Amino acid sequence: MLKSIEELRAYRAEAKAAMDSENRKIIICGGAGCVSKGANKVYERLLALLEEKGIKFNVKLEKCSDGDPVRVTKSGCHGFCEVGPLVRVEPQGWLYVKVKPEDCEDIIANTIVKGECVDRLCYTQHGIVYKKQSEVPFYKKQTRISLSNCDKIDATSIEEYLARGGYTAFEKALTQMTGEQIVNEITESGLRGRGGGGFPTGRKWSQVARQTRLPKYVVCNGDEGDPGAFMDRSVMEDDPHRMLEGMIIAGIATGASEGYIYVRAEYPLAVARLKNAIAKAEELGILGDNIFGSGFSFHMHISRGAGAFVCGEGSALTASIEGKRGMPRVKPPRTVEHGLFDQPTVLNNVETFANVADIINNGAEWYKSIGTENSAGTKTFALTGNIKNAGLIEVPMGTTLREVIFDIGGGIRDNGEFKAVQIGGPSGGCLTEDHMD
Ligand SMILES: Cc1cc2nc3c(=O)[nH]c(=O)nc-3n(C[C@H](O)[C@H](O)[C@H](O)COP(=O)(O)O)c2cc1C
Ligand code: FES
Question: Where are the domains of the chain?
């Protein structure tokens, strides 16, 4: 257990130095889509070949020297699920798509040994070969904040999260900001709830901060009931600490001391990753009593849903955590005053919490500079159905459906004609060509 913020900083610096030293890296997408297409076999084949050829490699974060050993790691979803299994090679940033175990020989012989790109494995469109992931049209119009770590880190490693600046916002909130300053920063950023209602997050937090009854709770809505949606799932599975960090900051801001994450039972990997992340944060002293001697305590719990769509609604969700039947109730009283166990409660969606750390680190002005005047920041979307590039994307607010469907999504499969798009699950609707812009 780390005893002070200084020790946390030193621990992070060590992890960062190790990550910076890894200049030859093979990142295999370990997201559900790629695993279902054989990513684990690709990973095993790569390791077997490195072993066979006597090339030194690491599977865990470790300090390297002069590019040795090669780091081989599994990240979360890269978003471009359509063309998985995906393999990215660093430092070049080359992206290989639809990789099969038979392709691994080429990757090792050419890319790892000779430093050359295997063009036949790169994404190709209209005869153009896109070597780098950042150049692929699918990624070009995207801005990734809440999904920024998903294709980069091993979600089971708190050290990798720390190495990429993880828990610096928590540190800032705990040591340099008052609760009021945190609430003001979130209010000024223009962050609005990503769970569907779009309620201003800062206003919600200020309403809870104002309550004098203790204890207060922070609840994360990870129910994600909308059919075809897997945005929150990706954050919980691939970058769980980002969400925990947002929740802890909400606790500091509002004076809450307990956090509950409500996850749908259909997401067993998310539950496992969150459990692991909570245990690691407790081990380091980021969660617990009197955190780093600050006087602030925070404990995190996981509550699993049982597959009811309605339990995604805030008051049904808190009833479900309490062990009651998950039924929405009439408001008022509102959750901010009488929420979980009838106490003042901050209830936000996974993606909402996933934006918090970057806002605290980079400031409200930075966040407001992304998106539109009334809707700041980015939004993640799962693209599914009759679209060429099914997958997970994150775009600035204000991006048109035409850009999402045609520029990023690649248009309709088999060059079919666009008819309609369903947005936002059952509470959304079907939009036609007239609404594309
Ligand atoms: C029937 C119904 C289902 C809902 N399902 C979800 C859900 O799966 N995930 C979610 O975050 N919000 C869902 N909501 C919205 C929540 O009630 C709540 O507004 C939201 O979680 C608040 O977080 P936010 O302000 O960060 O968006 C649902 C609402 C209704 C009415
Ligand atoms: S699961 Fe690999 S890109 Fe989504």
Answer: 21-136, 158-368, 378-435
Asked if pLDDT for residue 139 goes beyond 90, the answer is yes
pLDDT in tens, 246-277: 999 999 999 999 999 999 999 999 999 999 99
Q: Which atom of ligand 2 is nearest to the CA of 85?
A: 2
- pLDDT score of 105: 98
**Two tokens, residue 132:** 């780098």
29 lines ligand 2 (CB under 6 A): yes
Nearest CA to ligand 1 atom 23: 348
Q: Nearest ligand, CA of residue 34?
A: 2
Any ligand 1 atom below 6 A from CB of 194:
yes
21-136, CATH topology level: Glutaredoxin (3.40.30)
Ligand 1 proximity of 200 Cβ (cutoff 6 Å): no
- How many angstroms does the Cα of residue 411 sit away from the middle of ligand 1? 29
pLDDT, tens digit, for every residue of 31-83?
A: 999 999 999 999 999 999 999 999 999 999 999 987 789 999 999 999 999 99
Q: Span 158-368: which CATH code?
A: 3.40.50.11540
